[in-house]
Amino acid sequence: MRIILDTNFLMAVAEFKIDIFSEIERIADFKYEIYIIDKTIDELDNIIKTQKGKNKQAASLALQLIEHKDVKQIKTAEGRTDDLIVEAAGKDTIIATQDIELKKRLKDRSRIMCIRQKKHIFIR
Q1: Which among 43, 117, 115, 25 has a CA at the least distance from the CA of 85?
Q2: How far apart are CA 93 and CA 32, in angstroms?
């Protein structure tokens, strides 16, 4: 099973002070690998370059986690990150996101992983 992390899900680590990797391990009673879309790195770099304060810190932490946890990247063609995530979705994939619009687009395509009460992860 592939778990694809969206940019805002990664940035929630700093916002909610949650260890998403421990939480995923806690709830995943199946074999999985964690991925990001390659454009996620571009989004995080852009946030670091253009924003200040909490968002910049959250994006920086997200990049560190990607490297430290050895998260795999899915190479993609050009396009918007959310569109590429929808394309990558499928029955053997769980998309981890907090983005309401992306959740709506994924409703019938893939299972979704979300953060509940700012401290727990669940799959629906």
Answers
A1: 43
A2: 9
Contacts for 53 with CB less than 8 Å, ≥ 6 apart: none
The amino acid at residue 64 is Q
Reported pTM: 0.92
Contact 101, 10 (CB under 8 A): no
Segments forming the whole domain that contains residue 61: 2-123
CATH number at residue 48: 3.40.50.1010
To which residue do tokens 């990664």 refer?
Answer: 10
Q: How far apart are CA 82 and CA 39, in angstroms?
A: 9
Contact 32, 24 (CB under 8 A): yes
| Of 42, 119, 112, residue with least CA distance to 76 | 42
The Cα–Cα gap between 116 and 24 comes to 13
> Per the structure, how many domains does the chain have?
1
For 22-73, the pLDDT digits (tens) are: 999 999 999 999 999 999 999 999 999 999 899 999 999 999 999 999 899 9
